[in-house]
Design brief:
This protein is α/β, with parallel strands linked by helices. The protein is 38% helix and 18% strand. It has a 5-stranded mixed beta sheet, with helices on one face.
Length: 173
């Protein structure tokens, strides 16, 4: 059964897996994909290094969770959560590959009114140099990052279930 757009939850893991810690969002998405706690009503997208091209896949999402490497000047491996107005800071350089994610977030409201809530969960990178391995602090942070993602997705799933229940009650009257 395909979900109505008003109930669609999408997770996008972004990053470049050949730039070491820049690939943290993609690695986190892959761990999430195999997590038995993942709610069944969630769509997972490996966004890689795509930016604005992802609009075609997320424009009808009511809730959007981005997983990414985010440079906020903290200790490597520190988890980062941004939502709402905090996401505007990405245009100022917080995301390691800022143009893609910042452009995506700036353009989304122009093509869709669907996204009721957008959250970015990320990790402070140690290195974005060439390499396919994550640094030790970022590798260690992936478990807690996935846990935070599952918590957010569970919360949204509960909200959507409540909305569905309210819609069913209204329709039966």
């Amino acid at each position: 059964m395909e979900l109505k757009p008003a109930y669609k939850i999408t997770v996008v893991g972004v990053g470049n897996t050949i730039h070491s810690d820049d690939g943290a969002g993609v690695h986190a998405l892959e761990r999430l994909r195999g997590d038995p706690r993942l709610p069944s009503n969630v769509t997972l997208i490996d966004g890689g290094t795509h930016g604005i091209e992802l609009l075609a896949y997320i424009h009808d999402s009511s809730r959007l969770l981005l997983l990414d490497a985010v440079d906020v000047g903290e200790r490597a491996g520190t988890l980062v959560r941004m939502a709402d107005s905090e996401l505007r800071g990405l245009a100022c350089g917080a995301s390691v590959h800022q143009l893609g994610v910042a452009d995506l977030l700036a353009t989304l409201p122009l093509v869709s009114e669907m996204a009721r809530e957008i959250v970015l969960l990320g990790v402070q990178p140690a290195s974005t140099d060439w390499g396919t391995e994550l640094s030790a602090p970022v590798e260690a942070a992936l478990g807690p990052l996935v846990d935070a993602a599952v918590e957010q997705l569970f919360r949204w799933s509960q909200e959507i279930a409540a909305l569905g229940g309210m819609c069913s009650l209204a329709a039966s009257r």
